[in-house]
Design brief:
Helices cover 0% and strands 55% of the residues. Strands 2, 4, 5, 6, 9, 10 and 11 form a seven-stranded mixed β-sheet that branches. The protein has a four-stranded antiparallel β-sheet with strand order 1-3-8-7, with no helix packed on it. It is an all-beta fold and 116 residues long.
């Protein structure tokens, strides 16, 4: 079984940085994509950033220049470094493991709240 677990969320003030972590375990194909999505109450789930096993990254326009995604293939772990956080970044952040460009495994989510 594949399991995906996020951690690192919290309540922070605007301008502060946070780093989210996501560890995937189980039978994971070598070729895969790890990513972060977020969902605010009453809104749809949106892609934040993704990174392939080869290191190719993709970012939502709203986080470009502020967030950075990285991964440690040996640990099957992905990170999301979030800088200059804004209240608009408040959401539940979900980690997803995508294999074969078809199968998605989602974490339980971690709450990020940016408020003064």
């Amino acid at each position: 079984q594949v399991q995906v677990v996020e951690s690192g969320g919290g309540l922070v003030q605007p301008g502060v940085s946070l780093r989210l972590s996501c560890a995937a375990s189980g039978s994971i194909p070598s070729f895969n994509t790890l990513g972060w999505y977020r969902q605010a109450p009453g809104k749809q789930r949106d892609m934040v950033a993704t990174i392939s096993s080869g290191g190719s990254t993709n970012y939502a326009d709203s986080v470009k220049g502020r967030f950075a995604i990285s991964r440690d293939n040996a640990k099957n772990t992905v990170y999301l470094q979030m800088n200059s956080l804004k209240p608009e970044d408040t959401a539940v952040y979900y980690c997803v493991l995508s294999v074969l460009g078809l199968y998605n495994y989602w974490g339980q989510g971690t709450q990020v709240t940016v408020s003064s």
